[in-house]
Amino acid sequence: MERIGKYEVRRLLGESATSAVYLGFDPFSQREVAIKRLHPEILRSTDRTTLYHHLLLNEAALAGKLQHPHIAQIHDAVIEDRDAYVVMEYVPGGTLEPFTQADNLLSFERLVEIIFKCTRALDYAYLQGVTHRDIKPANILLTSPTGQDIKVSDFGAAIFTASETTQVSGLGSPAYMSPQQVREMPLDHRTDIYSLGVVMYQLLTGQLPFQASTNVNLIYQIANQVAPPPSSIRPEIPPELDAIVVRAMQKDLSARYATWMEFSHDLAQAYRNRNLATDDRSEPPDSAKFERLRAFRFFREFSDIEIWEIVRFAEWKLVPAGSVVMKEGEPGNHFCIVVEGELRIVKKGHLLNVLSAGDCFGEMALFTAGRGARTASVEATAETRILIIRAPALLRASALCQMHFYKGFLEVLATRLSLANSRISSI
User: Fold this and answer.
1) Are 129 and 219 within one domain?
2) Which of 129, 178, 267, 384 has the smallest set of CB atoms within 10 Å of its CB?
3) CATH code of the domain containing 195
4) What confidence tens digit (pLDDT) does each residue in 11-32 have?
5) Do 57 and 133 lie in a common domain?
6) Residues noted as catalytic
7) What's the domain range around 58?
């Protein structure tokens, strides 16, 4: 069996002029991996070998550093004179490249979800001091061919803004470069914002905003011309998505999105405003779930990574007015958070409290491992959407996620005790 280092080689996944990517197997970790290996002739050359070594070293430097659900993980690297490769997470769904063709475009809903997740992943990278600098469809991987979960990959051209390491200029894919990048100006996260705008443009229209027969002409257009809005190519594109692309691709930095948060917020808002989902009563998309939880006070200390954890393991339920969500005296092993709507807490027929968006209830069940009975009933006074988290799911969450939940519960209990004391003292 062919091997690359300690890794078994299963098959070739793809190759370029400089490297080949193999599906491999790590016998120690018992998992499939992707191995990107420089071609032997690249290692033997003298003019570009240093550059390609630099690209692999860039990726290798990120091993274990960018821990995000939407960033492909780097597991290992070997950079030697006679061999050079990086070992990364295997993401089986392929890249976004097939969806840049006019006859194979994504639905608006799926496109918004994918770009939203890219913005949150790249914001996380930026906060860790990393600017990607080569955002393009080939570097955005799908976890499944028909899904909308993604992994941003290939940080070889990245700038480590938190370090003092000299960076090699002229890296990246010209068609996706920002005006600042083609002019070789100092770069920050806003160059990635522009590049992701180009990706979004291409996914919406099936063509690039600037097209030319030579790189020189292409670079001139990027630096000096204004791309036609996506809707001029495809009129059915919603105005909100058109506006997002135009702002992301502004040549002037002051007119472009200043932060990833602004970019992602507009994507989520566009989804809501246009009602791109076919049914308001259906479960909201991941982007809407993330935005909603991020806005609640209960989750203010949770990191984005922990919010994504919750999006994945929590259940979302729409309950009609008049429904009994929890019944006094019954056992339970879950707690809930009100997402939208209104609930009331009743004990022996007496109203104790009214809950609205962001409020938590039923959390005491977690401290009794499902053996305790509910001490009050919870009823919906209007159609209400709730988030349900069951004890087994919370126990499988990361330690930091659990810690933040228990800290949040303590704050909720402290607030309730304070209100109870105020009521008693006023009697």
Assistant:
1) yes
2) 129
3) 1.10.510.10
4) 999 888 778 899 999 999 999 9
5) no
6) 134
7) 3-89
Q: Are residues 130 and 236 in the same domain?
A: yes
Identify whether residues 109 and 79 lie together within a single domain.
no
Q: How many angstroms separate the CA atoms of 364 and 343, rounded?
A: 18
Beta strands, E only, 174-328:
315-319, 324-326
DSSP string, 179-224: HHHHTT----HHHHHHHHHHHHHHHHHSS-SS--SSHHHHHHHHHH
Give the separation between CA 116 and CA 130, rounded to whole angstroms: 18
Q: Which two tokens stand for residue 407?
A: 């800290």
Instruction: Tell me how far apart the alpha carbons of residues 363 and 337 are, in angstroms, rounded to a whole number.
Output: 9
Same domain for 225 and 183, yes or no, is: yes
Whether residue 324 is contained in a domain is answered as yes
Q: How far is Cα of residue 221 from the mean position of the Cα atoms in its chain?
A: 31
Q: What is the tens place of the pLDDT at every residue in 167-208?
A: 444 456 889 999 999 998 988 999 999 999 999 999 999 999
Domain stop point among 61, 89, 117:
89
Single-letter residue type at 202 = Q
- Dist. CA 124–CA 337, nearest whole Å: 26
CA 145-147-152 angle, 5° bins? 80
pTM for the structure as a whole? 0.84
